Structures are given as C-alpha cells and as structure tokens.
Amino acid sequence: MIKLSSMSVSQLVQPKILLVLICIFFLFTRLYKITEIPSSVYWDEASIGYNAYSIAHTGKDEWDKAFPIHFRAFGEFKLPVYIYAVAPSVWIFGLNAFSVRLPSVLFSLGIVILTFFLAKKLSGSTAVGLFSSFFISTSPWFFIFSRTGYEVTAGLMFYLLAIYLFLKLDTSRWYILFSIISFVLSIYSYNSFRLIAPLTILLLVVFHIKNVDILKRSVLPIFLSIIILIIAIIPIYRLYVYDAGASRLQVVSASSSDLVKNYLSHFSLDFLLLNGDKNLRSQQPGFGQLYLPELILLLLGLLHMVKNKSKYRLMPLALLLLGPIPAAITKESPHALRAISMVPFIAMISAEGVNYLGEIIKKRYIFYPAIIIIFFGFFLNLFINFLNVYPVKSSKDWQYGYQQAVNLVNKKIFTGYDRVIISDEYAQPYIFALFYQKTAPDIFRQTVVRNSVDQWGFSTVAKFGKFEFGKIGKLLEGDSKNTLVFASGKEFIPNLSPSGIINFLNGEIAFRVYKLK
After folding, report:
1. Strand pairing category for 509-516 and 500-503
2. How many CB atoms lie within 10 A of CB 231?
3. Is 435 helix (H, G, I), strand (E, B) or coil?
4. Cα gap 272→141, rounded to integer Å
5. pTM for this entry
6. What's the pLDDT tens digit per position in 162-203?
7. pLDDT at 225 over 70
8. Number of structural domains, the chain?
C-alpha cells in the first residue's frame, strides 16, 4: 500500500488527465482575445497571412511565384512551413488575425505536449515530464510567441519532435528517418534552426556513439536520411549563393568580437529575471524571461542532473547551451525569439529541480501543489498585465496605426477618392492595405509598382491600385486633388487642418487624416 506522504504527482492523479488539464489551460490562455491582443497584426504576420491567402486562392505568392520554397516577401525570404500551415486556416476562416495566429497556437500546443514526452524520456520521470509541460505553459518567455503568428513555433515543435524521435532509435531503426524529416521541417520553419539542427544532430550522434549495433542495423534509414538532408540543403545553398538571401545575413550579423558577449547576455540576470527582451513584440515591459522561483529551480535542477547517473542526464543542459548561438551571431542580443529553443530545456531542468526538492522534502502531496499554486500566481499576474496594460504600451510596436488607417478606408465616408496616400513612417504599409482590404492577389500583381531593391535586397511597394506609400511631402508634389492622406505624427501638410486623428492606444498620434478635394 502506498503511503500518502510518499505519493508522487503521477500517483495522486492519472498523468493523462493532468496533461489534458495543462493543455486546456494552455489553449484558454492563448485563444482568449487572440484577435484583440496584441492590438494588430504586425508586418510579418500580415505578410505571412497575405501570402498564405494568395497561395490558397491562386497557388502563387505576392511575387507571382508558384508554390515557392522561399517566399521573397519584403526581400528577406520567409520560410515556407508556417505560411503553408496558415493557408488552410485562411481558406476556412478568411484573411484575418485569427487565421494567422491559430496555427501558432496549435504548434505551441504541440510544443507543450512534446515537452512532456521528451522530458519524461530524458529523465525517466512522469512528474518531471508533467512539470516541464506546466512550466512551459506558464513561461513568460514563451507566452507572447505562442499566441501570435510567429514562424518560430513551427520550428520549435518540429525540432522537439526530431529529438524525441531520434531518442526512440532503440525501438525502431526507422525513427532516424522520421527524425531527420522533422529536423528538415524545423529548418524550413525558422532560420535559427538552420544553425541549431545540425549541431543537435551531431550531439545526438555523440550520445549514441556507443550504440554501434543500433547504427549498424540502421544503414538503410541512415542512407535515406542523408539523401533527404542533401536534397533539403540544395534550396538553402541556392538562396544564399545565387539569390539575395545572403543580404539578410549581412544585415543582422554581429561582428566576431561581439559573439561571446552576445552569447553570455542570454544568461544575464537582467535578461532572465529583471527586464527581459526590450522588444515589446517579444516581452511585456517589467517582466524578465523567467520568474524568480523558476530561476531557483533551474539552479537546483542543474545540481540534481550533475549528481544523477541516468543515461541522458546532461542532454537537456547541452541542448540548452546550443540555444543562444543563433542570437549570438546577430547584432540584437539578447534576443528572446532567436534563442527560443532554450525555453523547453529550461522548463525540463526546472522540473528536475522540483523533483530534487521533492526527494528532500518528502511530503510531495503538499509540495507539488504548492509549486503549482506559486507558478499559477506568477502567471496570473503576467496574464492580467497582458490583458490590461500591455495593449496600451505596445500598440505602436504592433503597428496598430496601419490597421486603423486601412480600416477607415473601408468606411463609406472615405470612398470616392482617386488616391489614398499612406505614410511609410512605420514601415511596409502596403502589406497592411493588402491584408485588411483583402485585395485579390491577381489585382495586386497586375497593378503593383515597386521601389528599387535596396543594397541589402529589401523591397518596398510604391503603389498598387489607388494606394500610394512613401514620404507625404514627396507624394503630394504636383496634382493632389481628390486625395485622402494619412500623414504620420511627424508629418504635416502646411496650411491645412486634419479632418481626423488616429491615435495609438497610449494616446500618441499615429496619423493625421487629410482630405484634399
């Protein structure tokens, strides 16, 4: 008979029920007001959504390329997996914020579930698996990314799936083939995994180097896996050697002297605990990437893993240390988005810390619920702030003004103008006009006029249909009759009063609206 004082979390309640409850909690907190908060889609979400819309209805992207592997978009060549995942969502629900963000929620749900199975596999403990899943569900680092249209969620899900499948190689030799396919899907989802995936494969091989018999039995799957990897590398090679893909790398790359500093910045207290990522599309102001209790559990978990003699005891730490590498080679560091692969392994190590404390305290039936209540309290504070404070502070970062400007054009009071001029002060206004107007892709491709591609390979649209984009003063030179103008807060039309004002949610002027008759 099991004594109540020694019961583990998996003995108190069935693990499947607990995992389902975690998933329900996750889905509610991600789907609640998903179209309202953040306040607008930002340019990448709009670009993903419109290109998915174009693919769904015409089989071509905005540049008239049929089913591309790399979407040129603004000139930075977006990866295909998330865009193709959004295409059926847009087909079913229409072109809107919900359609663009829903796949991210579903990929993120997959991350929550895979974190459980991977943590359980690595630790041999159901409790560690469940706490890992719970911690990533409440993580401030993961929260915003898991309810907005970030491609990284697809990349992270396939990355975790690839690792889990590789670790099941002792069950079936064919798992290595499925693992490599998952790695390929991750590198075609988000650029960070183009660096992390090869390093992870090398790491997994090192961990399995003693399993010579398994490797000998897997000659055919390994051969097929190599073929798939070679085929997958060819479009990437072409992009960076023959196309303009290398330009993006030049834009974001850091100098060699900054690499170590950039890498270590992801482990600083300022980033992890105090201020987090400064980009308001990545983190809420006033919150670190971790909660204080999680940092404490993380340190205890590291200690426990070093003492533990299990087969994979150091793998979560090794995978955690790979996470900051993509962000370290770029100018913006620390960078929560590019280093997001750290998150599930932080959750796993923290869960090891819970397990370690549980062994010391013994009364797990009290200790485990206490940990859950503490983390739920921290998350509740984060969630309330997200609903009430974050939208006001971040609306400019989410380019809320463009949503309001384009939506005004839909109203009858603004119809009947020959030209609609929108300032490019906040960057890439054309994609918001396409997204919110739901412009037919064929009409856009027939009427679009693009500015010259800049030295970095980036592209901007000068006009399509009746819409024109750029600096207001320059666009108003010559005949400007019968024109509707959206001038940014920094731009004015001399001797003319605006007919309306569009504000960001914090009260700052986004646009002054002028009617030139």
Report:
1. antiparallel
2. 10
3. helix
4. 9
5. 0.92
6. 999 999 988 888 899 999 999 999 999 999 999 999 999 999
7. yes
8. 2
DSSP-assigned letter for residue 286: T
- DSSP string for 202-267: HHHHHHTTT-HHHHHHTHHHHHHHHHHHHHHHHHHHHHHHTSSHHHHHHHHBPPGGGHHHHHHHTT
How far is 78 from 472, CA to CA, in rounded Å? 29
Residue 411 vs residue 474, higher pLDDT: 474
Alpha carbon 143 to chain centroid distance? 10
Residues 6+ apart with CB under 8 A from 494: none
Judge contact between 153 and 44, C-beta under 8 A: no
* Residue 430 sits in the same domain as residue 371: no
* 161/138 same-domain check: yes
Q: Are residues 363 and 504 in the same domain?
A: no
Distances (CA, A) of 153 to 135, 326, 436: 16, 16, 24
In single-letter form, the type of residue at position 402 comes to: Y
Instruction: Mention every residue, 6+ apart, whose C-beta is less than 8 A from residue 87.
Output: 52, 53, 55, 56
Which of 5, 299, 358, 294 lies closest to 132, judged by CA? 294
The residue from 340, 361, 393 where one domain ends is: 393
Range of the domain at 506: 400-516
Quick one: 286 and 359 in the same domain? Answer: yes
- The two tokens of residue 308 are 């533990």
Q: How far apart are alpha carbons 57 and 101 in whole angstroms? A: 19
437 and 345 fall within a common domain: no
Residue 197 and residue 305 in one domain? yes
Of 393, 409, 442, which residue sits at a domain end?
393
CA atoms within 13 A on the CB side of 378: 23
**467, 433 Cβ separation under 8 angstroms:** yes
Distance CA 182, CA 227 (A): 14
394 torsion bin: left (phi>0), alpha (psi -120 to 50), beta (else): alpha
* Mean pLDDT for all residues in the chain: 89
pLDDT greater than 70 at residue 250: no
CA distance 477 to 475: 6
Pair (354, 332) in one structural domain: yes
Same domain? For 173 and 56 the reply is yes
DSSP 336: T
For residue 64, the surrounding DSSP H or E stretch is none
Tokens of 416: 């009947």
Q: Is the peptide bond before 441 cis (omega within 30 degrees of 0)?
A: no
Q: What gap in Å lies between CA 467 and CA 439, rounded to an integer? A: 11
